[in-house]
Amino acid sequence: MSELEKTAVPSKCSRCDKPMAEISVCDYCHWLNPAAAGADYFALLGLPRQFDLDEEVLRGKFLSVSRYTHPDFHATDNPQAQEMALRVSAAINDAYRTLRDPASRAAYLLELLGGKSSAEDKSIPDGFLATMMMMQEEIADARTTGDQAELDRLRGVLVTQHDGLMRRIAGLFGEYQEAVACQAIGTDLLNEIRKQLNAVSYVKKLLSQTTAQPTAG
Amino acid sequence: MSLILGIDLGTTNSLAAYMTPAGPVVVRDASGNALVPSVVAFGDGVVTVGAAARAHAVENPLATVYSVKRLMGKGLADVEGDLKYLAYPVVAGRGGMACVNIAGKEITPQELSAAILREVKNRAEAAVGQEIRQAVITVPAYFDDSQRQATRDAGRIAGLEVRRIVNEPTAAALAYGLGRKDDATIAVYDLGGGTFDISVLRVSGGVFQVLATDGDTHLGGDDLDMELIELITSEIRERFGRDMTFPPSTRQAMRNFAEAAKIRLSSQEQARIEIDLGAERRLERTITREEFEARATKWIDHTIEHCRAALAGAGLTADRIDQVVMVGGCTRIPLVRRRVGEFFGRVPYTAINPDEVVAMGAAVQAGILAGVQRDTLLLDVIPLSLGIETLGGAMGKLIMRNSTVPCQASETFTTYADGQTSVDIHVLQGERELARDCRSLGRFQLRGIPPMPAGAPRISVTFLIDANGILNVSARELRSGREAGVQITPAHGLTSAEVDAMVKESYTHAIADLTEHRLIDLRNEAGRILTAIDKSLAGAGAALSGPQREALDKAVAALKARMAGDDPDALYAAMKAANEAAMPLTQMQMDQVLQKTVMGRKIDEV
């Protein structure tokens, strides 16, 4: 299966034979599709498999798909349907949570596309490590002296870093899609995305240090 | 279709509501009261629940249990801080579980809560005229897994199938938002008798989505009462001696005074307290609202900190909140309304009855589950992160707090010894780094692992949090594909078998209670009959014929005998027989009375 092929939406509902718009549930008779529990997060929420995502569109999809799959909606159904609703709902909630945050969305999409995990490839962009180590020292100093203004400044720098990295990642995913469309190999691009994502993790860790409370508490 | 009851099982008061096409309806008694004080009293072999129990708290302090919600799902060690509020003996039961000791008998908080739930259920059944078997019960949003399980167990012991455990602020949001068309971001500030919750929700298109929740299960009106009690006791000690001690009944009386004063100070600037301490000692004190606010303010500060945390959890600032809904009796306090208004930058919404809104929301959720409220949906969250104890005593989080439920996480385990057939996992809830600083939910033992070399088995464990916010664990050994059995030993709860036993026991007791009550009522009535007969005999006894008098004497003797017995049906029959035997007598007495009244009067006066 090509990486961009999505989990197939059944064309007709198994129970009432009407066309299915979503993979998880039939809009007409509210039959729950067992295949939904194993579907990828994009398919589950009825979204195209790509990094670019409008937050509002994502939220709208999440709410509308939740409506007929939630266990409460199936509270008067037979036990199997209720069990199904529980599992499908959990998957939908996990999907929303993962796709909502750009970094976790990127990591998830990378995995779907066959890219390496952070365990398999820990490399980071050149020169990045030196910059980060310097920042780490500055943060430690500012925390020791209680220099709040400095911590705020450092946080600002890190946020700018983070946003820049995410923009680069978005661009790389776009390039990857183009490459695949032209039948070109995109592995290098995926590896680059992994590098950038590793950098993002680092930046996030430092960010949490700028807001962390003293550990004595 | 059978009705699902919505129940607010509160620290101080409980109440119920049910759903109708016109909206939720609160259950009231004949006098229009909705609230059932969450108090259980034991005396003379009889268990009383509610206002009657509360009324006797001062005379009966060691056997009157209130605020039992504070003990639910907790070990004795966890509630050390609560003991100063509780006048009755709290002890460690099986496994260190917090229990109440009444006359030497250990009673679990679940059984006590079940007594309250049973009373609420009975009132509701009387109001709706049908049997109620299912309920939705609310809990503070910040209740952990053990506390939720304990609440569900209490429902079962009371003879109710608990279809859903709902978070109180979410329920309030449901009641508030029902029927409103506009999208909104709302905050629910819920300050109850013993617990505080703040939830931030987004409401759109009939979907109520909780974004974040925060709170403290040990912060509430009881703490404000405590401030006033300390004020009073320190002044008493100043005036009458440092070593003044207060017997339980006095402490209970002071609790009542403090609570009453706190309530009065919401509508008045002053509240007067008079306490008789015996031996010619009296404390008369007028407490001003200012004094109360000075002491109360630090507790309200805490609630505002939690509000800040909840907003951060939701990724919002205070100005993004469209409405702040106030829930819980304490939100009537002017200080609370002021501080909340200041923090959120808007006047809080107080138009909905803060005592009833949660029960009403529970009724709406009941309606959703019954399938009559198809266009409303609740998406709630788990309030505390859930994880397992990892090597070195660290807390390894698997599910983050404020995750929408249902949600799940999987983790793979293996064995450390050859041929090992079971694996233990210690499950925890909380935000701290070390396992010992988090709440232990219990130990899960995965059994039935096929014997293999150490490290070979791949046991995939799925932690699923259901819509109640309660954990369900399932495990499968991947190599063999076999489901592993999961044996749970709760840290502070009852096992399934124990609950079953209590359900059986309570059923037997329910029958016994019914009989006991009936006997008491009948004995009272029988006593009245005997007194009436005596009076009539004194007046008109001479007019009875021989056989009539003999029959009456026999019936009276039989009735007295039955009164001393235990058979309500036989007693009822004896009462009927005595009334019948007394009929000639009563007839004669009436004639006499008539004669007397008529004789002394002229015709035109009659």
Account of the 3D structure:
The complex is a heterodimer of chains A (217) and B (606). With 217 residues, chain A is mainly alpha-helical. Chain A has 2 domains: 100 residues, Orthogonal Bundle (Helix Hairpins); 84 residues. Chain A is elongated, with a radius of gyration of 21 Å. In chain A, 34% of the residues are buried. With 606 residues, chain B is of the alpha+beta class. Chain B folds into 4 domains: 302 residues, Nucleotidyltransferase, domain 5 (2-Layer Sandwich); 74 residues, ATPase, substrate binding domain, subdomain 4 (Actin, Chain A, domain 4, Alpha-Beta Complex); 109 residues, Substrate Binding Domain Of DNAk, Chain A, domain 1 (Sandwich); 102 residues, Substrate Binding Domain Of Dnak, Chain:A, Domain 2. In chain B, a hairpin with a 2-residue loop joins strand 16 and strand 17. The longest helix of chain B has 45 residues. The chains are: A mainly alpha (217), B alpha+beta (606). Chains A and B meet through helix 2 and helix 3 of A and helix 9 and strand 19 of B.
Poorly predicted tracts of residues of chain A: none
Task: Give the helix proportion of chain B (percent range).
Answer: 25-40%
Largest sheet report of chain B:
8 strands, antiparallel
Strand content of chain A: under 5%
Shape field of chain A: elongated
Mean pLDDT of chain A: 88
CATH topology of the largest domain in chain B: Nucleotidyltransferase, domain 5
Number of domains as seen in the coordinates of chain B: 4
Number of helices of chain B: 13
Residue-averaged pLDDT of chain B: 89
